[in-house]
Amino acid sequence: MQNKKISKAVINRLPRYYRYLGDLLEKDVVRISSKELSEKMNVTASQIRQDLNNFGGFGQQGYGYNVEYLHTEIGKILGLDRKYNIIIIGAGNLGQALANYSDFERRGFYIKAIFDVNPRLIGLSIRGIEIRSIDELEDFIKHNQVDIAALTLPKSKAAQLASDLTKWGIKGLWNFAPTDIHFPQDVIVENVHLADSLMKLSYKLSEKDRPADN
Amino acid sequence: MQNKKISKAVINRLPRYYRYLGDLLEKDVVRISSKELSEKMNVTASQIRQDLNNFGGFGQQGYGYNVEYLHTEIGKILGLDRKYNIIIIGAGNLGQALANYSDFERRGFYIKAIFDVNPRLIGLSIRGIEIRSIDELEDFIKHNQVDIAALTLPKSKAAQLASDLTKWGIKGLWNFAPTDIHFPQDVIVENVHLADSLMKLSYKLSEKDRPADN
């Protein structure tokens, strides 16, 4: 189970499984069949069985899945059985929106500080998280265990800052700047492009209006 | 080309192709080989050829791809050869961040209004886009052509509002509320879960630290 190469598509679906199972747990659901789970999640039951088989299955013939167990196990696979410290670079609207998500903490992601260049923002706090000057960034990283830096910066500044961050030891970048950042080897980058999901939406909207081929 | 069923994975990659080609265009690059494009995009050249073959190819043996032509054609596939009017429901940090993205307009997405319940926000403007009372929502939709509603709302309010919006004729929902919304048939929903990409990041970070199987 441990280091087998799991396909990107499966990894992409794991957070959804995790969220759904979390919702079921909140509703005190104890067990669920792959059929019920598939209806809730809008994927086929065989897809679910296949996906979970990558990690050893978890299901029992005739019983289905134990919700709490499956939730815990998928959480472990996702690395959610430990804590992550996050800093946010950029205290604009998006940076503030991220700082306001209390949901992240529930999953073990703790936002420790926000950094910005704007003197009018420096010193303010969001949910008790201080906005600090970008000049303190290197020092902060050196004196605190920071696992992930979220970048909510203009495109023009993102690449240089990402490079500095990795030089200072950051291994995880959650990049919202509208440019793809790649690092070789041991730095993990997750690029988030809000416009991409908007384009998927327009694809599907216009697909609907297209005349069918025959 | 028109209504052939294209796999989700391909559709997921199209916005990236479009963005990369747009970057190349800005740098006045006229043509590119699938090999060069693949290096830039971090996918294999054969993947690119395969993906684009879904739409008839576009490449010429020994020449590669004409950047402008490919950009235009992928844009058409993505439905970007027309305009979309967007409204944002929720003028919190995330709603304001979306309203501030001028990039969307470049791709044909025009934000027409923002709606909120907070009297302190109603009447303010973001980049010239007015924040209106949620009480005006139904009327606004009836008197304006609205293609897409972006939902930046608490989980507890999202489902009901989504249902109202579709009743009033909205066909596209871009949902940022931390709950999956599904509608049958002719309403297209794109659910964006920021936490999902964070969990992918933690998956990859913890995968790195796992001892290899053998």
Distance between the termini of chain A: 46 Å
Strand ordering within the main sheet of chain A: 5-6-4-3-7-8-9
Name the helicity range of chain A. 40-55%
Number of domains of chain A: 2
In round numbers, the mean pLDDT of chain A is 89
Q: In CATH, what is the homologous superfamily of the largest domain in chain A?
A: NAD(P)-binding Rossmann-like Domain
Question: Which features does this protein show?
Answer:
214 residues, 2 domains, 9 helices, two-stranded antiparallel sheet, Arc Repressor Mutant, subunit A, alpha/beta, Rossmann fold, homodimer, seven-stranded mixed sheet, 44% helix
Structure in words:
The structure is a homodimer of 214-residue chains. By secondary structure, chain A is α/β, with parallel strands linked by helices. Chain A folds into 2 domains: 8-77, Arc Repressor Mutant, subunit A (Orthogonal Bundle), CATH 1.10.10.10; 84-196, 3-Layer(aba) Sandwich (Rossmann fold), CATH 3.40.50. Chain A contains 9 helices and 9 strands. The first copy, chain A, has helices at residues 8-26, 34-41, 45-53, 67-77, 93-100, 103-106, 137-143, 155-167, 194-209; strands at residues 31-32, 65-66, 84-89, 109-116, 125-126, 129-133, 148-151, 172-175, 188-191. In chain A, the strands form 2 sheets. In chain A, strands 5-6-4-3-7-8-9 form a 7-stranded mixed sheet. In chain A, strands 1-2 form a two-stranded antiparallel sheet. In chain A, helix 1 (8-26) packs antiparallel against helix 4 and helix 2 crosses helix 3 (45-53). The radius of gyration of chain A is 20 Å and the shape is globular. The model of chain A has no long low-confidence stretch (mean pLDDT 89). Chains A and B meet through helix 1, helix 5 and helix 9 of A and helix 1, helix 5 and helix 9 of B.
